[in-house]
Amino acid sequence: MGEVILFSKSLSLTDIRKRLSMPTTILPNLPSFTNGRHAMDLQVEDEGGKIWSMRCIIRKKGRKKPVLSRGWTKFVHKNDLMTGDQVTFLKKQGTLLAHYYKIQVKKPVKVFGTILGYAPSTHAVHTN
Asked: Is residue 125 part of a domain?
């Protein structure tokens, strides 16, 4: 079963406090927003194997920029995410589920305040 990286980004304050803003380039990899729909729930697996339900929303008018809202802030809180942490959002290929996603978290590695790189988060949550 393969995985395709849809995007990676360093988290901003808005990403931490409200919603995860995603690039419009991932729209073809999301379920179709048809019949005037502008919101849907996605099942997203973390690195510990826990499945999180997150609401994906696009604007009703203008540019169709996707964001993760409901469920995202719970994920942020339970995984102690902070601004500057890096998330990678992937689509899992070859699953029975048509739309199955995974999220990876990396924390910055700092020496004397300088970021040298990113390391996988050691914080895996298995509780609700």
From this structure: no
For residue 41, the domain's CATH number is 2.40.330.10
- Residue 127 maps to a domain: no
Inter-residue contact 75 to 52 (CB < 8 Å): yes
Check the CA dihedral 8-13-17-23 and report its sign.
negative
- Place 8 in a pLDDT band, splitting at 50, 70 and 90: very high
Tokens representing 102 are: 């995974």
Q: What sign for the dihedral angle of Cα 24, 13, 128, 8?
A: positive
For residue 67 the two structure tokens come to 């964001």
- Structural domain of residue 81, as residue ranges? 3-120
What is the pLDDT averaged over residues 115-119? 57
- Work out how many domains the chain is built from and give that number: 1
pTM of the shown model? 0.78
Cα 88 from Cα 121, distance rounded (Å):
12
The whole-number pLDDT of residue 122 equals: 57
